[in-house]
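INTERNAL AUDIT FORM
Audit reference: QA-55
Scope: verify that the stored structure record matches its stored sequence.
Auditor: D.O.
Record contents follow.
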Amino acid sequence: STWGEHSRITAIATMALVHEDSVHLIANWLSLADHVLICAGAGMSANDGHNVYVSREDFAKAYPGMKKYGYRTSYECMGLIMDNNIPDTVKWGYQISHMHNMRYARAPHSGYNTLLELVSSKDYFVLTSNVDGQFHEAGFADDRLYVPQGDWQWYQCRRPCTRQVWDSKPMIDRLLPLIDPATQTLPSLDLVPRCPNCNGPIFGNVRGGDWFVHDHLTPQQQRMIEWLDRVKESQERLLILEIGAGFNTPTVTRFPMESIARAFPNTTFVRINPTDPLVPANLPRALSVPEGHSILVDVHQVLNTTPISQLRVQLETLERKLIEAKKISQGADFSLAFQQRYGHFDWRTFFMNLRE
């Protein structure tokens, strides 16, 4: 992406600490936090054998019939519905199969349970760009969850003729047994799902264009904004824990998190990402962790086995190491470039724009 490449070119990074230091610093910041804002992207849902969005091998196993049409990953299939070279029976054979696989076929991996145990005693809120419902299935409270990109559990009219969304599971349960698993094909055009209201085309209620319906998600967003306002007013300690959020949708995840980290007092910021861990060098108390969500297992173990008093002894040394790492980081804050181009770099504006 443009902003991802820009961040790498200008090297706006805080150098990472070694693994053990990162684990102990996260454990310290988490134990001290009064509030935790979790921001999760695709990396949080990464699960061996099911990475159909990026793994050609996993995709081929799940959807063998799509190779015939030149599709090799689910990322490539994001525009499938607009491909006039593919029969609607195949489009919807794949789409129904994919909605089922992403939303209902698998339980959350253990990383979700670990994360929930880490924050269950805290005042937390979750923003996730994932549309797979894994936070809900793992037991995170629904009233502390915002899914701005939608969720496969709903579908909507693509026109849209109405702001209503519908439960996708009855549709999936009805059509899935009819799909040829070798070719991802429905047996008849008559089975291609249509809008219950206008009989027009439909799609899952996941953000993919200006047809996306956000209305039913606005109460989730409003709860999160009110929560953030209360946290800021309290001036209590906030930990932002960003996991696996890259540059596919940075205005939904990374950029708002950086804005909040700057605007809120007493904030610490952890960016966990094996491929895009960079944080602005001039963002105070921000930790870059070039790893996946599995580091949370080690954080959990440290918190369960290390006395808090012992953790606190390490805190000053760890934060000093972080400061020293910042001194040798290079580059400028690219939020200024974004602000010059779009007129803002403000978390509230980012969120309000998601309603449009």
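Auditor finding: record pair retrieved intact. The first helix runs from residue 2 to 9.
Action required: none
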